[in-house]
Amino acid sequence: MDRIAKIKEFLVANPADNFLRHALALEYMKLGEDTAARELFEAILTESPDYVGSYYHLAKLLEKMEARELAIAWYEKGMVAAKQAGDNHAYSELQAAYEDLVY
Asked: Rounded to the nearest 10 degrees, what angle do helices 18-30 and 34-47 cross at?
């Protein structure tokens, strides 16, 4: 069974599992299914704004999709969430990506 099918199978039992939804979004990205990945990342962060790991991936995806202003906004939201969570590593990664895009 391929990864996407396996993750979807797990999601049937746990549809709100952010780890699984994040993993599914990453699999979609690998296949170039950017819209599906974006929708998943946005759903995760709308429902669970403290799920810090998805901000970077969503913003990078938006950069790839040439949605620069949206990417900037998600990096900024991610930095706020990482700071609130005390996740300095995620904050640094988000800040570096943000600065690369803005400056």
From this structure: 160
pLDDT in tens, the chain (103 residues): 699 999 999 999 999 999 999 999 999 999 999 999 999 999 999 999 999 999 999 999 999 999 999 999 999 999 999 999 999 999 999 999 999 999 9
Whole-model pTM?
Answer: 0.94
CATH level 3 topology of 3-102: 1.25.40
Does the CA dihedral 68-73-77-80 come out positive or negative?
positive
- Given a contact cutoff of 8 angstroms between Cβ atoms, the answer to whether 81 and 49 are in contact is yes
Q: Residue 21 contacts by C-beta under 8 Å, 6 or more apart in sequence?
A: 11, 40, 43, 44
In the chain, where are the structural domains located? 3-102
Residue with tokens 């069974």: 1
Q: Note the residue count of the chain.
A: 103
